Amino acid sequence: RRRHTRFRNVTGVQTCALPIYTSERLRAMRPLMERPADILFFVSWVPNLDLVERMIDRVCADHPGRTIWMKIKPAWRDRPALDSLRRRVKRHANLRETQEPSLDLMGRARYAISPPSTVVSEALQSGLAVFCIDDRSWGHRLCFRSFPINVATPDELAGRLGALERGDPYPFAEVEPLVPRDGTNYHDALLRELGLTTHFSDRKPAAA
Predict the structure, then answer these.
(1) Which residues, 6+ apart, have CB-to-CB distance to 95 below 8 Å?
(2) pTM attached to this predicted model
(3) What is the H or E stretch that residue 68 is in?
(4) Which of 60, 145, 159, 207 is the S-S candidate for 92 at Cβ 3.0 to 4.6 Å?
């Protein structure tokens, strides 16, 4: 179920990009506007960790009446840089750090914000309005850059969230090639690309 978020140079091999698997549990989540208007931050180590912290500060300040959930990736939680960030952002009264399962958190919020990670795709599948923190300081070719979900500054993030709050639509249709929400299974997509028989959604029952 994992997918790579970075494209590297590949020579001598024919490649294609396939949308990620859609799970029944994610598709069954409540429609976006029926969920609490809380905001999730999924955090792991990235070179521009100071930018992540400034975005947390801005969102906490702009939305004092809402719960801002922060989940740090368990593998990084006790690293010095992440531990330092945890201690600094705890000054916000509306910030709640948690280690609850990510899917449980997705069912209790309306917006999610994360550096480049597989959780961006998973949150999109769950129906959340998602923004990917990317100021292009990474040298990698990030697949999320092909879609209108990236924010590079706290001001840009604040503007995007504010537009949604005023009723502007989130560009779900434009991210459909990345994360289909119609039940497409990436195993079948790959098998079709290779000209092989599919085994999941397209399989026909055997003749009697």
Answers:
(1) 56, 60, 68, 70, 89
(2) 0.77
(3) strand 68-72
(4) 60
